[in-house]
Amino acid sequence: MKDFINKLVSYIIPDEIPFEIKEESGEGVNIYTILVPETEIGKVVGKEGKVINALRTICRLKAGKDQQRIVLKVDKLQ
Question: What mean pLDDT comes out for the span 3-19?
Answer without folding.
Answer: 93
